[in-house]
Structure formats: structure tokens, C-alpha cells
Amino acid sequence: CVKPTQNKMATGAFRRGLATAAANFTKERDAHSKIATATMSTWKNISLFVAIPSVALATYNVLSAPHPAQDEFKEYPWLRRRLKKFPWGDGDHSLFHNSHANPLPSGYEASSHH
């Protein structure tokens, strides 16, 4: 049998424990919030001052480089076989056809690029 005074003491201790746990939780949350803010600031600066200029520099490098010359067409019997026409267009061009890089079975198309 528990006496009423013991029950009140246990309840008070429990409440003090909850209050202490809540205070500790708040302190830890605030500490993590400061760390998160600093980390977010670091990655924001990395994105703005490293990533974006790197992408811009890479884009410039790709667009300013001279285009390679077109390879000589070699007709091999096992390449560019068309046993059945493609179901789009004239049936001879692939779906993502590039006239400069992808030859037809008869050779490269006349190109006005370079």
C-alpha cells in the first residue's frame, strides 16, 4: 500500500524530471539549429561561388571548342542494316537521328554545318 505523501513525492519528482528533460531537449535543439544554419550557409556559398561558375566555365569550354571533322564513311556489311523500315518519317532515319554523326546505310547526308 502506497501512502499519499509518497505518491505526491513521486509525482513531484516525475514532473521535475520532465521539466529537466524538456529543458535539455530545448538546449540540444537550439544547438543543432545553430549547426544546421552554419552548414546551410556553407553549402549555399559553395553552390553560389563554386558550382555555378564551374558549370558556366564547362559550358563555355564545350561551346567554344572546335567541332571535330566528320569521320570517313566506311561501308561495313554488318553495320546500319535495315531489315525493316522505321515506323516514323521516311523509315531510314532513327528516332534521334543526327545527320552529322549518324550515317545512313548509303553514307552521310549532305551537311551544311562546316
Q: What distinguishing features does this structure have?
A:
1 helix; 114 residues; mainly alpha; 54% helix
Please tell me the overall pLDDT: 84
- Gap from first CA to last CA: 99 Å
Work out the strand percent.
Answer: under 5%
Q: Could you name the ranges where pLDDT drops below 50 across 5 or more consecutive residues?
A: none
Structure summary:
This protein is mainly alpha-helical and 114 residues long. Helix content is 54%, strand content 0%. The chain has one helix spanning 4-64.
Q: Which SSEs are present, and which pair or pack?
A:
Elements: H1 4-64
Account of the protein in words:
Helix content is 54%, strand content 0%. The longest helix is centred in the first third of the chain and has 61 residues, at 4-64. It contains 1 helix and no strands. The chain is mainly alpha-helical and 114 residues long.
